[in-house]
Amino acid sequence: MTTRIFSGMRPSGKLHLGNYLGAIKNWIALQDAPDTAQCVFAAVDLHAITTPYDPATFQQNVTNVLLDYLAAGVDPKKSLLIRQSRVPQHTELMWLLSTISPVGWLERLPNWREKVEQVQSMGDRGASYQNNLSLLSYPVLMAADILLYKANLVPIGDDQLPHIELTNEVGAKFNHLFGDTFPNVKPFIAAGARIMSLQDPTKKMSKTGDDGIALTDTPDEVRGKIKRATTDSGREVTFDETAKPGISNLLTIFSTLSGKTVGELERDYAGKSYGDFKGDLAEVVVGFLAPFQQRRAELAADPATLARILTESEEKARIIASENLAEVHRAMGL
Ligand code: AMP
Ligand code: TRP
Question: I need a surface site. Which of 143, 217, 251, 287 has the fewest CB within 10 A?
Answer without folding.
Answer: 287
